Amino acid sequence: MTEPLPAARRKRTAERRTEIVTAAARIFADQGYAAVGMRDIADTIGVRGASLYHHFSSKEEILYAICLTVTKEPVEQNLPLLDAAGTPTERLTALVRAHVRHLLHRRVEYLVGLHERPALTPEHRAEIDRYLYYYNRRVRDVLVAGMRAGEFRELNPSLAALGVLDMLNGVSSWIQGTADEDTDEVVATYTVMLFDGLRPAPAP
What we know:
mainly alpha, single chain, Arc Repressor Mutant, subunit A
């Protein structure tokens, strides 16, 4: 039976994997996934190829880790906001804020995931798609709740959820900054645009 790794070693391993994924995302964003090899990633990080293969068996596995960062993380970090107390408007507002902040901190990974996801194996792509579908479904559900409560106008909730997420994810192509406060104006502006479009039209 294999002995579990000591906590300190597990932490170092996790930190090293994160370092590799972050560095690889920058390289993929700058040069394109197809043009980069494992040696390029190892040279950028300053490790030997054998050390890199100790953490990831292939370049595709690194890309998969990058894509997980921008699909699994939001599910784990953002969606609990939709389960909190509050009206649908309040819960969706909290999600918008968290989503934009995540985009700021994972901007490079978002861009790589957007452009390079087709290079994943079918199995890995299916796993990424499951996270994306679940996130979309939860946004759709809060929109439905808002429509039933009379807070949002009656729309096709599936199309509305796609529109909301497309609008938010588009921020990744231009957002800049290093701190959460750098998203405040973006969140405020997008919240106004979003809820102006969702509110019921005034009665004639």
